[in-house]
């Protein structure tokens, strides 16, 4: 009986390994993401939203290692260093960074807990609150937050950083953030590394920062636009600026020409005297 069970387990493992190996070969991207501390309900919700975009698997470490080894792709073996027991493996036809951005967009804000480490400065913004005068006054005061009372409600007079990056969150700070509805953390799949089977590229560090990426794109566009206008490159985007530049140059030339005419007229007048 025991031997039969072992044989069944072994066959099940082989089937899972074979399925994972096929996904590695068929899909463009194999991405490793941390799912540490994610509640089951949150995991299920994110996985559901990813349907049609990625296949999500949470295999045992040893089974995923076997599938990677059996894939016959030498470079992908380096992904092993990123695979832990609390990681999910995603298979997708999207490129690695597109899939990573999708995961980042699926993160949900969560409340702070006492003892957590702040990943960045946590600031209480100025403005009105729903807090009424009472114990909240001393609680806010203990955190160094300046307040005033208007129409029976507490108003925070100026922004205040109550926890600095790298510091532990105190019980008082966590409680006040919860009362104010401030959720300084987010929870979701965290992209760790990826392999692009189409390009044969391995990304052992894959980070997505939408705000900075957008800023960089805007800066690059601005510089490219300035260069294009300076060399008089004509396109749908530059024609407006080229016409403005031409009009400004025309005015400058007219001004210079007008000045020269005034000088010439003055000179002619003096000669005729």
Topology of this protein?
Elements: H1 2-26, E1 29-34, H2 40-49, E2 55-57, H3 61-70, E3 87-92, H4 96-105, E4 108-110, E5 122-124, E6 127-128, H5 135-142, E7 147-150, E8 153-156, E9 160-163, H6 171-180, E10 185-187, E11 190-196, E12 201-203, H7 210-230, H8 239-272
Antiparallel strand pairs: 1-3, 1-11, 2-3, 4-10, 5-9, 6-8, 7-8, 11-12
Helix pairs in contact: 1-3
Please identify the top-level CATH class of the largest domain: Alpha Beta
Largest sheet: 5 strands, antiparallel
Number of domains: 3
Secondary structure: number of strands: 12
Rg, alpha carbons: 31 Å
Largest sheet, order of strands side by side? 2-3-1-11-12
Overall pLDDT: 84
- Shape, principal axes of CA atoms: flat
Relative strand content: 15-25%
What does this structure look like?
- The protein is flat, with a radius of gyration of 31 Å.
- Strands 2-3-1-11-12 form a five-stranded antiparallel beta sheet, covered by helices on one side. A three-stranded antiparallel beta sheet has the order 6-8-7, with helices on one face. It has a two-stranded antiparallel ribbon with strand order 4-10.
- Helices cover 47% and strands 18% of the residues.
- With 273 residues, the protein is α+β, with helices and mostly antiparallel strands.
- It has three domains: 2-107 and 188-208, Ribosomal protein L10, N-terminal RNA-binding domain (Alpha-Beta Plaits); 122-185, Ribosomal protein L10, N-terminal fragment, domain II (Molybdopterin biosynthesis moea protein, domain 2); 219-266, no CATH class.
């Amino acid at each position: 009986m025991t031997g039969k069970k072992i044989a069944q387990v072994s066959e099940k493992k082989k089937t899972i390994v074979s399925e994972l190996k096929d996904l590695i070969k068929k899909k463009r991207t194999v991405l490793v993401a941390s799912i540490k501390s994610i509640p089951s309900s949150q995991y299920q919700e994110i996985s559901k939203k990813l349907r049609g975009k990625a296949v999500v698997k949470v295999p045992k470490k040893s089974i995923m290692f076997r599938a990677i080894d059996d894939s016959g792709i030498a470079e992908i073996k380096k992904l092993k260093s990123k695979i832990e027991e609390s990681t999910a493996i995603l298979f997708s036809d999207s490129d690695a960074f597109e899939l990573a951005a999708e995961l980042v967009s699926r993160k949900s804000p969560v409340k702070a807990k006492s003892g957590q480490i702040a990943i960045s400065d946590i600031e209480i913004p100025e403005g009105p609150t729903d807090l009424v005068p009472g114990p909240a006054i001393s609680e806010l005061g203990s955190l160094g937050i300046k307040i005033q009372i208007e129409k029976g409600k507490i108003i925070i007079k100026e922004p205040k950083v109550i926890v600095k990056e790298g510091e532990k969150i105190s019980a008082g700070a966590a409680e006040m953030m919860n009362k104010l509805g401030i959720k300084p953390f987010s929870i979701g799949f965290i992209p760790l590394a990826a392999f692009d089977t189409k390009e044969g590229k391995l990304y052992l560090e894959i980070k997505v920062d939408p705000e900075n990426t957008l800023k960089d794109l805007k800066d690059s566009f601005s510089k490219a636009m300035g260069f294009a206008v300076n060399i008089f490159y004509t396109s749908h985007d530059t024609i407006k600026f080229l016409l403005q530049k031409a009009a400004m140059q025309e005015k400058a030339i007219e001004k210079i020409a007008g000045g020269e005419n005034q000088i010439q007229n003055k000179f002619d007048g003096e000669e005729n005297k």
